[in-house]
């Protein structure tokens, strides 16, 4: 593609995206295709001769769009949001255009230094403790996802608790344990599997029935039982905004218990953490100053296209110690000087995209003020929605809802609740997903779309509450 062709098709693509955002509301939120429909519409063999880009755009409309579930639809209330924005899309496009691979400082100093700087900015925006800033012993890095953050936190924790032995000897069988609430996201169990500890190394600590937060006394008991048996506690994961219910664990207390036994405390605030851009929600981060690592996803609720997980550590030496390998072909003067960050040592892969560009673009476009308004708007809508649920005798709320997730059900029971979800989702008018709380099927109304307004939440309640 010549620069002129790129210019022409590039304009068409930008127009396509702008039209998509203008019209997304008129599309069914949930894709209505059956398994295999999309592949059946694609040619079985790749083209022998190059095709004009118009053909790609045509198939995007005709073949692929029906198989898209519209995450950017204002009535998408499923899972947690993965909201996007113009500045993030353009930042991502620029990163693709530059096509740099920022594995080392030397392979693109701007990619590394902007990332360090933007993560410091972001820590300031969230008022995170100084322990996480790059000016001290900590620092931030963009991970692909919160699941990667949990995995690298576990690898760093194993490094620290074993004095570096796990890198050489592996983790053995039944030697180390990981602790988290029974409400925590499945990524923690996956991290145990990937790190070779196995799912049996994970202790799921029961939650308080009222707050759905982990019970510190039960964590302490589980750790003490392990220590008596000769098992080493490696990692405790606290949730700020657990996936099913939005529960917030008592991070400070959990950190104290973890540290008394030499374990690492990681905070998974994948969805909720970004709410701290607004001072009135900063209480969610109480106790985070005692954590060893913390992650939150701008790619969920802060206008930054997937993928962008912000991950901070208080002691970068543990992370780098766990992950650094320096083969001859990566040696260079800047690395040897010790004066630079090489982000290849801060995550699992070697190569990395220039993801800081999109976060930088978002922060600059919206400013702290715009980001606060974004989060506040969704929280206000969720509070209104929760008040309608509470006022309707047929429904009950199942969890505290201080932010923008409302977990609720029909009092008529599991079957009726599931049937309601299927009815509203198949209408194409909105999309929401479910969880199980205390053995009961519950619906999750996660409000956070960039385009979501009060009228969309009202229409959702209309649909949910009409027989
Ligand atoms: N942690 C929590 C609390 C989540 O809600 C999720 C996803 O919804 C994850 C982790 C996993 O996120 P990611 O897709 O970034 O790995």
UniProtKB/TrEMBL annotation:
Keywords: Aminotransferase, Decarboxylase, Lyase, Pyridoxal phosphate, Transferase. Its cofactor is pyridoxal 5'-phosphate. One of its GO terms (molecular function) is transaminase activity. SUPFAM superfamilies: PLP-dependent transferases. PANTHER family: GROUP II PYRIDOXAL-5-PHOSPHATE DECARBOXYLASE, MIP05841P. Belongs to the group II decarboxylase family. This is Aminotransferase class V-fold PLP-dependent enzyme. It comes from Jatrophihabitans cynanchi.
């Amino acid at each position: 593609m010549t620069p002129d062709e790129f210019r022409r098709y590039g304009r068409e693509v930008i127009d396509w995206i702008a039209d998509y955002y203008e019209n997304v509301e008129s599309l069914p939120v949930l894709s209505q295709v059956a398994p295999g429909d999309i592949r059946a519409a694609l040619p079985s063999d790749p083209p022998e001769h190059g095709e004009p880009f118009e053909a790609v755009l045509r198939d995007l409309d005709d073949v692929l769009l029906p198989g898209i579930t519209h995450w950017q639809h204002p009535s998408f209330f499923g899972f947690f949001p993965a909201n996007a924005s113009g500045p993030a899309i353009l930042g991502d496009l620029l990163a693709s255009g530059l096509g740099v691979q920022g594995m080392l400082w030397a392979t693109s100093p701007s990619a590394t230094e902007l990332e360090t700087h933007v993560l410091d900015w972001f820590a300031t925006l969230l008022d995170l403790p100084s322990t996480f800033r790059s000016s001290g012993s900590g620092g931030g890095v963009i991970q692909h996802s919160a699941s990667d953050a949990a995995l690298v936190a576990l690898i760093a924790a194993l490094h620290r608790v074993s004095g570096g032995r796990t890198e050489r000897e592996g983790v053995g069988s039944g030697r180390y344990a990981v602790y988290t609430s029974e409400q925590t996201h499945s990524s923690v169990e996956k991290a145990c599997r990937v790190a070779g500890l196995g799912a049996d190394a994970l202790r799921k600590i029961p939650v308080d029935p009222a707050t759905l937060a982990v019970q510190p006394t039960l964590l302490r008991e589980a750790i003490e039982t392990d220590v008596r048996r000769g098992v080493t506690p490696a990692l405790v994961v606290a949730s700020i905004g657990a996936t099913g219910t939005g529960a917030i664990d008592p991070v400070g207390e959990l950190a104290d218990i973890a540290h008394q036994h030499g374990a690492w405390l990681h905070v998974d605030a994948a969805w909720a953490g970004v709410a701290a851009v607004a001072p009135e929600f900063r209480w969610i981060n109480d106790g985070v100053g005692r954590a060893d690592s913390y992650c939150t996803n701008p790619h969920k609720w802060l206008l930054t296209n997937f993928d962008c997980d912000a991950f901070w550590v208080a002691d970068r030496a543990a992370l780098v110690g766990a992950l650094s390998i320096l083969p001859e072909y990566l040696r260079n003067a800047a690395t040897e000087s010790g004066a630079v960050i090489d982000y290849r040592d801060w995550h699992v892969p070697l190569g990395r995209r220039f993801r800081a560009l999109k976060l930088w673009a978002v922060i600059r476009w919206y400013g702290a003020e715009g980001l606060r308004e974004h989060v506040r708007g969704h929280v206000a809508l969720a509070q209104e929605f929760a008040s309608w649920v509470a006022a309707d005798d047929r429904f009950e709320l199942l969890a505290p809802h201080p932010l923008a997730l409302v977990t609720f059900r029909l009092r008529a029971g599991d079957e009726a609740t599931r049937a309601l979800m299927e009815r509203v989702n198949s209408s194409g008018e909105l999309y929401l997903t479910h969880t199980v709380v205390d053995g009961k099927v519950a619906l999750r109304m996660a409000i956070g779309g960039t385009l979501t307004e009060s009228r969309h939440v009202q229409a959702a309640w209309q649909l949910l509450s009409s027989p």
